[in-house]
Amino acid sequence: MTDIKKDVVLITGAGGQLGSELANGLIEIYGKEHVISTDLRIPEAETEHLFLELDVMDKKRLGDLIRTYRVTQVYHLAAILSAKGESNPLLSWQINMEGLLNILEAAREFQLKVYWPSSIATFGANTPSNPTPQFTITEPGTVYGISKHAGELWCQYYHEKFGVDVRSLRYPGLIGYKSLPGGGTTDYAVDIFHKAIKGGDFTCFLKENTVLPMMYMPDAVRATLELMHADANKITVRTSYNIQAMSFSPKEIYGKIKKHYPEFEMDYAPDFRQKIAETWPQKLEDTLAQKDWGWKPEFDLPAMVDDMLLNLKKRVNYKSKVLEEI
Predict the structure, then answer these.
(1) Is the omega angle on the peptide bond into residue 128 within 30 degrees of 0, that is, cis?
(2) Alpha helices in 132-249 (DSSP H)
(3) 261 carries an active-site annotation
(4) Catalytic one among 75, 115, 144, 171?
(5) What is the rounded CA–CA span in Å between residue 234 and residue 294?
(6) Cα(13)–Cα(102) distance, integer angstroms
(7) Beta-carbon neighbour count of residue 162 at 10 Å?
(8) No. of helices (H) and no. of strands (E), the chain
(9) Residues 203-241: tens digit of each pLDDT
(10) CB 168 within 8 A of CB 156
(11) What's this model's pTM, rounded to 2 decimal places?
């Protein structure tokens, strides 16, 4: 096991839904002096740790940062998500695929440990959906899914060919209260909370009984860190691990939220994202993640709804107070 005091962690795409929360988890482990966040733009709000501009397509800039700060680990989160990806497929492929290859090449050159997130988008209409096995048919129908499927194979290739310690999770839909939806097909399950708290009604872009696997952000962060700190000898999957937490439909999450907000109403206007969702799993089989590194979720749907509403209301009330003072 390496001495964590000597590790320096670089996060790409740190301004996204997962990045900021993962950064906080990494700071707790390594200290703020050892965590560097990067994205295309530096956030306006000041961060407690170093945040730098980085385009993952810029191989020279990436190499310079790794050398300058003596980086030992990279959490590569920069990507264009499923729904946004369909509006510009070629750009999405370029960023998602070439960005990953730049990271893997840097890992080979500098002997870095790498985390790269995959997704349920790697599966397709012909994949068994309830549950979806760890090893199964993968025929994705979106450019995002195609890039994730190819990325999984590249990660496995770099591990087997060059010994790169690269690890990955197939995330389900992620739900968190610290950031706004980021352009994914499962993002209705984030937006619905904001609408409920603000007192407005909500129009869902999926049909009411569309069941998808989801995960609360604290579980996603914990799963990522547990995987990355597991003994390398126990990691048997070098494409990407299935992980399951909860599965529900828009109708089910609406029912849980309505118990807190009886006046809240939701209707349905399915759009192009419905077809994407219909090709994705309803539930993931994750026995290998359980066996290899002890994966176990802490949040089910009721617990997630309660915690999400509690924390989101705190954030809304805080922002309102700040605006009043200004």
Answers:
(1) no
(2) 143-162, 188-198, 217-228
(3) no
(4) 144
(5) 10
(6) 14
(7) 14
(8) 12, 14
(9) 999 999 999 999 999 999 999 999 999 999 999 999 999
(10) no
(11) 0.93
